[in-house]
Write a structure and sequence with these properties.
By secondary structure, this protein is mostly helical. Helices cover 49% and strands 11% of the residues. A three-stranded parallel sheet has the order 3-4-5, with helices on both faces. Strands 1-2 form a two-stranded parallel ribbon. The radius of gyration is 18 Å and the shape is globular. The relative contact order is 0.09.
Length: 170
């Protein structure tokens, strides 16, 4: 997901100045597309070296609160890949921290900005609401996950089709 965030940031005239990933090989693969960026193995080390205007958090949901809090407390705006937090209480806490710091905290959901979504919106405007919807969900790499990891993946991606339907149909 970090690759997509970085691509769209650059597409919107932002500069990717740092990449944080505990997996050095993954960080270097992403850096290949953004050679001006410096790689770091953890957020604390990155924050000691550079202060970005915005941090994009594209990690498992269990890490969102800790990472977002660290960035917000350093007065860095934060974009977080959905879901924002593990539950409503943690979400409220993050929103309060952002508000107290005067920083923007924004969950990110990329589907509405993708070409296929825009095509579906256009089709629905021209033809009316769907009478039937069939969904097939695929995720690259899921077969390599530990059996419990696949349950986590399902919980993370299962809301996608429902939220897309809600967005398309109101």
């Amino acid at each position: 997901m970090g690759t997509w965030h970085a691509r769209y940031a650059v597409r919107n005239r932002a500069q990717v100045i740092a990449i944080v990933d505990p997996d050095a090989a993954a960080a270097n693969r992403l850096r290949a597309g953004f050679p001006a960026a410096v790689t770091f193995s953890d957020l604390a080390t990155m924050l000691a070296a550079v202060t970005p205007d915005v941090a994009n958090i594209c990690t498992p949901v269990q890490t969102h609160a800790e990472l977002a809090t660290a960035a917000l407390e350093r007065r860095i705006h934060v974009m977080v890949e959905k879901p924002l937090a593990v539950d409503a209480a943690q979400t409220r806490q993050l929103l309060d921290i952002a508000d107290a710091a005067g920083m923007v905290l924004c969950p990110v959901y990329q589907f509405p900005f993708q070409h296929g979504f825009r095509q579906a919106e256009s089709w629905l405007r021209a033809h009316g609401p769907p009478l039937r919807v069939d969904l097939t969900i695929c995720s690259a790499g899921a077969e390599r996950l530990h059996p419990f990891g696949s349950e986590r993946l399902i919980r993370e991606i299962l809301p996608h089709p429902m939220s897309v339907l809600c967005m398309l149909t109101g």
